[in-house]
Design a protein that fits this description.
Blueprint: H1 3-14, H2 23-34, E1 37-43, H3 45-50, E2 57-62, E3 65-71, H4 76-91, H5 103-112, E4 121-126, H6 132-150
Parallel strand pairs: 1-3
Antiparallel strand pairs: 2-3, 2-4
Helix pairs in contact: 4-6
Amino acid sequence: MTSMEARFRDATRTVPLPSPWNLSAYLANVAAHRGRSISLQAVPASALADIGCRGSGLWVARGRDDIIVYDASATERNADHIILHEVGHMLFGHGRGEKDAAAPIATTLAALLPSISPASIEYVLGRNEFGAERERDAEVFADMTMVYATLPRRRDRSFRLFGRGR
């Protein structure tokens, strides 16, 4: 088992996927596990580009909660993928030690989301702030979560990477 595969398996053991799949229920479980609420905020894609987010979503970590910002024009499936990508970063602990990432974007983000005080932001991480390995891990997490969420439940099914034998 690869270390990446082990981390995916650990993530799904830590916060199991609800059956039947329900993104809201899953986010509530992730929030409970982390002890921090998670809210979603849809914004125009152009606004994400204006604040330097090359992808279509970002994660805003504040003192007691997290906000996942995503492209308002994304289809439901694409929006779910964007949201799960950011959840992957959360569950893998990618935001730790990234406090300096908030400084250049906090003021611009606060203009986009006026209910957010720039002082309340601990870090803001979009798809270009994590590095290639972390981005790949979060992307695969989102892909695999969406695939496994739609499969019929089997007791012996494990969270395995594609292309690997049983």
